[in-house]
Amino acid sequence: MVEWLEGVKPGRAGVGIVPARWRFREVAGVAALVAGSIVVALGLIEVWLRLFVFTISYPKAPGPNARYRIDTLEYRTEVAINALGMRERDVAAKAPGETRVLALGDSFTFGVGVEAHEAWPRRLEALLNEQAGGGVLVLNGGGREWAKTALAFLRQTGPVLDPDLLVYQLYLGNDVYNALEDGAVPPDVAAEGRRALGPGALFDAAKQAVRTRLRLVDFLWLRLVEFDAVNDWLVRTNLRAGPRNLLRRELPPLEARLFALVLEQMDGLVAWTRARGVPLVVLVVPFKLQLLHREQFEGPRWDLHTPNRVIAGYCRARGLPCLDLLDRYETLPVEAVRRQYYARDDHWTPDGHAFAAAALAEVVAPLVDGRRRGDARAGGRAGSDSMLDVKPFVDS
After folding, report:
1. Residues 283 and 355 both lie in one domain
2. Are 304 and 294 in contact (CB under 8 A)?
């Protein structure tokens, strides 16, 4: 005889069937457990990414006469800023017979990742004094995001610093895109750039909804755009920008317009130096994609030298000495190049700064010697006094 359990109706062969409300509770409980597990797992991944992958965070410089520290998993450095807003010693009046070299550029010149005495401007000073017998002062004016901010700093401090020679360092990894953050671009270019930069417009709404910067989204986006088909589609639809696009054989429209803006601002540096008879040297710093991830850029659509040729053509037209470190790096074994850059951070190690200073000394030393001898041609070919059209360099 079958004994009936409360709330259970007989099924086939006398097997009880769980009521619908019980089944719903069971399914809801399992779904909640699965959803909670997924949230916890994603949270743990987010924490892991923040602790071990996206670990680089640079403090904003507090201003003149400040001291602060930059800490990452790879280095810890002390930073002292003088009254002129430079990572430099206090600058006194120029001594008789002293030759001054002003180094302008971004964080590679500033020396993010190394102490002040390890950055290339101070190392260059030591090399020049060794060759010239003393009397050379190299001033670190780094920390200017791109040519426009470098020019503004030069116009403000130039009369005080009174340089005899100027070295402008250009980093291909982000200087082109810094124009967007500066507000120096036409509104239509700015709108296009905001849409294309960052982790992509496809994820903007989600990130705005949670009101935070999800590193998991960034990580997935960076992996996704490594697929050429995905990246090509995003470029065609103006949803993707970034250093990878600078390595295309033909620059996308956004990058071409931004490059033209950078060269126009560099013309301001050219005009300032020519008006004062000061030689100008351009130092081109490649980014790690060009050096350590070359296998990602095989095929007819890619050319690792595209941005470098733009700068080289510009410098030839302006009669400027140009040192492109990509050419130097390509002569080194891969492991030697790896020692020049931090593994996680994109900046140079002390070895990278030493290598750049030694290469730059070969170019700058003859110019310093020429300035001391009063050679007006020490800055290289004078070039045209009128500013040339930048479009041929971008289209080349």
Report:
1. yes
2. yes
